[in-house]
Amino acid sequence: MLKVEKQRIGKNAVMLALLEEGEEFNLPGNWQSCRGKVGSMDSHKVVAAIETAAKKNGIIKTDVYRESHALYHAIMEALHGVTRGQVQLGDVLRTVGLRFAVVRGNPYENEQEGDWVAVALYGTIGAPVKGLEHETLGLGINHM
């Protein structure tokens, strides 16, 4: 069984993103999470898929701008890792196939620190030719 670490929001997000279909991983306490998949040659479609999943699963409130803003920055940070700092896909003839996880919670002992959000991306990136891609991983963390 995988070990959950209640003060490691990023590690827990990565663990969720790495899970195969049907595998389980329970997060600590009152943390929230969602998972999904996205494949695209357009980075804006990756962002949209993650934002949509987070909103549909109640990870962020749709009517609170700072929550969408925090999630956006966590997504962009994770995409920087996936794309090695150049958040471009189709423009430079590369595509991604990713599993993602979004985790929200307070990784601190002090409740007044508030919630944070972590976005983990795991999958493949490469030329838009099946079999020419390689693995990639990205993680972004931001305070709400």
Automatic annotation (TrEMBL):
GO molecular function: mRNA binding
Lineage: Bacteria, Bacillati, Bacillota, Bacilli, Bacillales
Gene3D superfamilies documented for this protein: Hut operon regulatory protein HutP
HAMAP family in UniProt: HutP
The protein's role, per its UniProt record: Antiterminator that binds to cis-acting regulatory sequences on the mRNA in the presence of histidine, thereby suppressing transcription termination and activating the hut operon for histidine utilization.
GO terms (BP aspect): L-histidine metabolic process; positive regulation of gene expression
Record keywords, A-Z: Activator, Histidine metabolism, RNA-binding, Transcription, Transcription regulation
Assembly description: Homohexamer.
Identification of the protein by name: Hut operon positive regulatory protein
Domain of life: Bacteria
Family label: Belongs to the HutP family.
Keyword Cell division: no
Gene this protein is translated from: hutP
